[in-house]
Design a protein that fits this description.
This protein has 163 residues and is mostly helical. The model has no long low-confidence stretch (mean pLDDT 89). It is built from 8 helices and no strands.
Length: 163
Amino acid sequence: MKYLIVFLVSMVPVIELRGAIPIGLSNLFGDPLPLIPLYVLCILGNMVPVPFIYFFLRKILVWGSSRKWTKGFSWLGKAFKFVLNKGERLGKKLTDKTGKSAYVALMLFVGIPLPGTGAWTGTLAASILDLDFKKSVIAVVLGVLLAGVIMVLGSFGVFSLFA
C-alpha cells in the first residue's frame, strides 16, 4: 500500500518526488521503504505525466484562453491566458539567454527541488517553447534523477553537516 501511495504522490504537481521520497523514508503509512525501490518508484511516478503534459496541457491552455466563458467564469479564461502568456514570455527570455544550452537549463530547473520547479513545470515550459520532445524528456529525466538524489541526501540529513 505504501508503494502505491508513494507512486501516486510522486505524480502530483508541485509535490512530485520531492514529497514522495520523504514519505517513503518515513514511518508514515508503515515502515520506511528500501532506498533503491523507493527511488526508482518515485522517478517512474514523476515521469508518468510528462508525455501528457507535453502534448496536451499546452493545447488545453490555448483552448481555455480562447474560449468564451460564461458569466462568473470569465476569470478562468484570464487564468489560462495568463499562464500561457507568462510561459511564452519567460520561455523566450530563457531561450534567448541560453541558446543551445536550453536543455541544460531545463535539466537544472527540474533538478533543483524548490516549489514551482519540477517535471510538471519543466515539461510545460518545454511544450510552450516548442522544444524537441525527445531532448526535453531526457533533460527532464536527468533533472528528476538529480532532484531525487538531492531529496534522498536531504532526507538523511547530509546537508545539515554543512550548516
